[in-house]
What we know:
The chain is of the alpha+beta class. It is built from 8 helices and 15 strands. It has an 8-stranded mixed sheet with strand order 4-3-5-6-7-8-9-10, with helices on both faces. Helix 1 runs antiparallel to helix 2 (26-46) and helix 2 packs antiparallel against helix 3 (69-82).
Amino acid sequence: xxxxxxxxxxxxxxxxxxxxxxxxxxxxxxxxxxxxxxxxxxxxxxxxxxxxxxxxxxxxxxxxxxxxxxxxxxxxxxxxxxxxxxxxxxxxxxxxxxxxxxxxxxxxxxxxxxxxxxxxxxxxxxxxxxxxxxxxxxxxxxxxxxxxxxxxxxxxxxxxxxxxxxxxxxxxxxxxxxxxxxxxxxxxxxxxxxxxxxxxxxxxxxxxxxxxxxxxxxxxxxxxxxxxxxxxxxxxxxxxxxxxxxxxxxxxxxxxxxxxxxxxxxxxxxxxxxxxxxxxxxxxxxxxxxxxxxxxxxxxxxxxxxxxxxxxxxxxxxxx
Length: 320
């Protein structure tokens, strides 16, 4: 019999807030609004091939990437779900070049939302897992007026909530406030996210490493050496590792958190600045991984996640 209590996302957040005197309920309302957007995006993802929503819009985003139709749908849906709740002062999206102001006729709040509306969208047409990543900060600008760019460019350590939604065989929302990581699986029959993974802890040891080995020839020599070390046979350190690489960051990170192992997205000679975005991807993912007990190294332009604690892996990584 499962020991996980039957708990909806909203009920869980409310009960957690009761443990913290002085909580205003603002974060619970933000997460509730985000969950509504996630339900709608999940519905569209699951029927995308049937309603001809797949394909490119013909536009490119601020990073020079072709924008998929579903990317913009997800972006618009999150904006519409979040703009009028009265909890946010500003938003920023990977799909928008500029910061996103709250419409002037809505109440301005004290929180900041950054989001990647649909991570891994290059895999949409292949029916591979994709996801939404979000990060929440408290505003730092003065006054009660509109938020500013300063509010959006805070260090990752200032995050108050981070999470992701993964759309696959089931839809799952994972979030943390820095005190434990919890996963909620969407039950489409009742339209609710139900607590399915309470207090997720990354395993101390894994057997999988995840990296795009198609870029091997462009890597730093030290990284090549590290990957070869993972592939060597050694019973004492339980090597070799197997490789698994989906190509959707949310999916690869989600598997690493649940099964353990290593996830790496390094820069290379073709992309010396890397391809991951600090504010939309590295910061929230690192916050989540560290909250469930795993080292997460953001040494821009690289992101490295390792099952923790794994001193042997870290020692060899430090030798790169």
